[in-house]
Design goal:
This protein is an alpha/beta fold. The chain contains 14 helices and 22 strands.
């Protein structure tokens, strides 16, 4: 049995882990690299094995850094099956089509305004390429064992984080491999706590927040203070957000604040067509989350739902103070860039960062205190207030990750840490070895391990 890391190794994005056993190749996740230019360039590189030789892709969840490279995989010859839960299939479809559309639009804009070094600028993949992925999806139920081969089976179990997200237990060659995927928090407002694995010889654990504990302060109070202060000075609150789950979680908190009369009577806007569609998925998948149907309807009634780009531009240039949730979460693209172009250079406004920001992304640069930010080839001075509300992250923190390992008996032979930056990986490795006395490995991209 061989394991090879093609992504999310020594970095947070681009999740791809290849398992090979008795001639069967299984790719765990197939994500897009995000962040600085050097990291994004990896998306253009071919996989180190021929995609036509991969039999299965198992998706832990539908975020772009876990499913966003699927069109390239299919373009390069993959003809196998993509297994995931029902909500993950629906979310992946939205994510892939939206990603392709944004890439097409940005390539067109770069060519029109001539700010790209590439002539002509091309999208990584098109909407047509993304649509070609969809027939390969196969839905499986969580907690049910699925036979991939005579001696290989997989089981998906609840991971929190976003709707449909699961960890994966893979049984082969008499061993159990457990891939955490991204793990949610034990006290998330919308989702249930992740299920802990009971067995596993080899564990592949994410470490996004491996060196951090979420603050104990109430993020709802932080949000309340931020909205009230900004609106009182006549400013706009712009919240870049992942369209899946985080947008809905922020909507929920704002709705509760408004219901309790703690924030003012101003327009509350959700400007992410994909985020609006995800609300429908919450309605259709009640068993996956805590939100009641009547709460979902009341929450949506508070918000002005912006769908077309003309509405976006009208909202951007409307001088009335307001609160806007817009994609994307790491400020790497999407409609939030139009809001930042207009509002980031005015001191009265506040940009609220609510999720993990990968190294090299605009979101990371903002919380690191960059004085100017590049958007569509132009630089804009950062004069708006930048506020990070870390308690709104959808990722479990260091203690959540450690607790997730607590019920595995007997102890795993080895733990592989992925999906994290260097400091987080090292900190979590040290904590695991100290608490559980289990050997931890931090693989790098391309590293191969052979198990007898």
């Amino acid at each position: 049995m061989k394991i090879q890391f093609f992504g999310a190794a020594g970095t947070v994005t681009g999740s791809k882990t290849l398992v090979e056993s008795n001639g069967i190749r299984i790719l765990i996740d197939c994500g897009l690299f995000q962040g600085n230019k050097e990291t994004r360039q990896l998306n253009w590189q071919p996989l180190e094995v021929l995609p036509s030789t991969i039999d299965y892709v198992l998706l832990t969840h539908g975020h772009l850094d876990h499913c966003g490279w699927l069109p390239r995989l299919v373009m390069q010859g993959f003809e196998g099956k993509i297994y995931c839960t029902g909500p993950t299939k629906s979310i992946s479809k939205l994510i892939l089509l939206d990603s392709a559309k944004i890439q097409e639009e940005e390539a067109e804009k770069a060519n029109r305004e001539q700010y790209s070094k590439h002539i002509p600028a091309k999208p990584l993949y098109t909407v047509e390429d993304a649509e070609k992925v969809l027939p390969y999806f196969r839905v499986i139920q969580k907690d049910e064992e699925v036979n991939l081969d005579a001696e290989i089976s997989a089981r998906f179990f609840y991971a929190g984080h976003i709707l449909g997200a699961c960890s994966i237990e893979l049984s082969l060659e008499g061993k159990t491999l457990v891939f955490s995927g991204d793990l949610g928090r034990d006290n998330d407002d919308l989702l249930y706590a992740p299920i802990k694995p009971k067995k596993g010889n080899y564990i592949f654990l994410e470490s996004t927040y491996g060196n951090r504990l979420h603050p104990e302060n109430d993020p709802m109070e932080d949000l309340e203070e931020c909205i009230n202060e900004t609106i009182s000075r006549g400013g706009n609150v712009i919240i870049p957000s992942f369209a899946v789950e985080r947008a809905q979680a922020i909507m929920y908190l704002i709705w509760k604040l408004k219901l309790e009369g703690r924030i003012p009577e101003v327009p509350y806007i959700i400007d992410t067509p994909m985020g609006i569609k995800v609300i429908d998925l919450f309605v259709d998948n009640k068993k996956w989350h805590k939100l009641k149907l009547d709460e979902c309807e009341a929450m949506c009634n508070l918000f002005q739902l912006v769908t077309d780009f003309e509405e976006t531009m009208n909202t951007v240039y409307d001088e009335q103070p307001k609160v806007v949730i817009a994609a994307s979460g790491m400020v790497t693209g999407g409609r939030v860039l139009s809001y930042l172009e207009k509002h980031i250079s005015e001191e009265k406004n506040t940009i609220v960062i609510v999720g993990y920001q990968a190294e090299g992304t605009r979101g990371r640069k903002l919380i690191d205190g960059e004085k100017e930010i590049k958007i569509y080839g132009r630089y804009y001075p950062v004069k708006a207030q930048i506020q990070e509300i870390e308690g709104l992250s959808a990722h479990g923190d260091q203690e959540d990750l450690l607790q997730w390992l607590s019920e595995i008996e007997p102890k795993p032979t080895q733990i592989f840490l992925n999906h994290g930056e260097k400091d987080a990986l090292i900190a979590l490795k040290n904590k695991i070895e100290e608490r559980y006395d289990i050997a931890c490995e931090i693989p790098y991209i391309g590293k191969e391990f052979v198990f007898n």
